[in-house]
Design brief:
CATH architecture of the largest domain: 3-Layer(aba) Sandwich
Helix content: 25-40%
Largest sheet: 7 strands, parallel
Distance between the termini: 39 Å
Strand content: 5-15%
Low-confidence stretches: 294-299
Strand order of the largest sheet: 1-9-8-7-2-5-6
Shape: globular
Structural class: alpha/beta
Mean pLDDT: 93
Number of strands: 9
CATH class of the largest domain: Alpha Beta
Length: 299
Amino acid sequence: MDKAGYIALIREAASPLEPDPPELPPSLEALVYPGACGPLGGIRAVLLDIYGTLFASAAGEIGAGGEARGNIDALARDYAPECTGEELREAFTRAVLDAHRRLAAKKACPEIRVEELWAALAGGPVKAGPFFDPRELALRYELAVNPSFPMPGAGELFARLKGSGLTLGLISNAQFFTPLLFDAFFGGPPEALGFDGALIIYSFEEGEAKPSPRLFSKAAAVLGSRGIRPEEVLYTGNDMLNDIHPAAVTGFKTALFAGDRRSLRIRGENPLVGELLPTRVIRDLSCIPSLLGADRADP
């Protein structure tokens, strides 16, 4: 299957996912913008997370696995006829955990490529025919367990930031099909929407996943070569551990996206988060341009 076929699969599986606004602890509620906290000044670059921030997903993050038993059973009939859907899910989950254990000796936050794991399962639970495409199976599995749909206001956000003079980038846990979400829902790749190719940082390409600080330091190095200091960067994500912590350690200003209960990850029990607070909290993507200051509200 080619790129156009993958995009067609994403569109076919698409179904709107309405955000479910969460309640926030007082410490975060006090930082909600617009509200008691005003806009930020001096921002020259905006970096964004993808899953749970720009795209709502059934499980709240990539690969987490939602409640989609019927779809998994159908997938098993097509690809693993001797398995139930739950057995297929368990086989893949074991493969992910085993791969992470092997890689953990070399990297604190290892990332895998899901199509490689599905290829390795061929000949076992997965019955691979002559036209077996592990990338197609990887995408079909993700769409079955964790379909994604744009967060309200994402398209408008891209349109307002593009051409604003701000440098735009993405830092996200991702797989090969993640960039195709932009093609499927917005008609082109991230670069066509205004994102700088040198600042599109995906975990599967780096071999490391968030909260690895290396993903953020890589972005800081690119921005630094252009004269943009860390304190002039705003990073927005939905997870205090995976997004806000490494961004803050890098020196970026941070915005916690708290627009959907499914994706919000406060993780107050994690010692790396502790008493950490984001610079701002936002409940709606549409407020990001004004958060950057009135002079940035209209490109």
